[in-house]
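The records we work with from here on pair a chain with its fold. Taken together, the tokens spell out the fold as the letters spell out the chain. To see the layout at work, look at the sequence and tokens printed below.
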Amino acid sequence: MSDRELFIEIFRRIHGLGGCDASESFSRGWDAAVASCEDVLTELTGITCDDLDGGEDDG
């Protein structure tokens, strides 16, 4: 597995953590934290939701 493939898999797994089934206020905070992790990964690697299978941005 190349470094890029590894980073894409890490991004995919972090992205999958979003959308938890919790209270509205907790869910918003959780999703914001997940988005912040994605932002850091994008900043460091250039990988975005578009690089995930299907290229869809649902988060």
About this structure: Helices lie at 3-16, 24-45.
